[in-house]
Amino acid sequence: MPITIFDGIVIGVVLFSAVLAMIRGFSREILSIASWVGAIAAAYYLYPFILPYVKNYTNDQRIAVAASAGGVFLLALILISFITSRIADFIIDSRIGALDRTLGFLFGAARGILLLVVAVAFWNWLIDAKQRPDWVNNAKSKPFLDALVVKLEAVLPDDIEPQLRARILGKQQTAPAEGQAPADDAPAQAPAQTPGQAPAPAN
């Protein structure tokens, strides 16, 4: 089976990511990811404190949440990136700089593969197998990436999307118990009658 265009794209993405990480260094790549994770965590936990002030300028809940979380994220990313860049510069100029670049190459290759796995997962979900071009279906790297997609989906929780949506919208809706109707919709219960007592005549 010959190498297809898809295989060339896979090789190009992995090599580009690996070389870029080697130039930047392993420590800088890790600290860069840590900066993004820290900024996302800050936005996730701190935006409720900013939300009341943003609501003074808009009545749309989603816009207020997006503006609050986005502002906290950008501010945290700038501050954390400034600190981590200083740490990375110190490491890359030290005696372990060569080792740092070697580890960066390996890390970059792994990162490129992960990006491809996510892209293939989205591709498989969006495009039906019969509609995919032959240069994708016949690629030598496609079965390998598909196997990694299965492993990635296995470790993700099934209810991750509802949890994130409930957290972002700030609404924790609890469904009524199964088989139990809401109190407002419950039919009025007729008064109990004593045996032998005739029902009251209707007016």
Automatic annotation (TrEMBL):
The keyword Phosphoprotein does not apply. GO terms for biological process: toxin biosynthetic process. It is a multi-pass membrane protein. GO terms for cellular component: membrane. Keywords: Membrane, Transmembrane, Transmembrane helix. The chain crosses the membrane at residues 6-23, 30-51, 63-83, 103-126. It holds the Pfam family Colicin_V. Residues 175-203 have a biased composition (Low complexity). Residues 171-203 are annotated as: Disordered. It is found in: Membrane. The keyword Transmembrane applies. PANTHER family: COLICIN V PRODUCTION PROTEIN. This is Colicin V production protein. It comes from Agrobacterium vitis. The lineage of its organism: Bacteria, Pseudomonadati, Pseudomonadota, Alphaproteobacteria, Hyphomicrobiales.
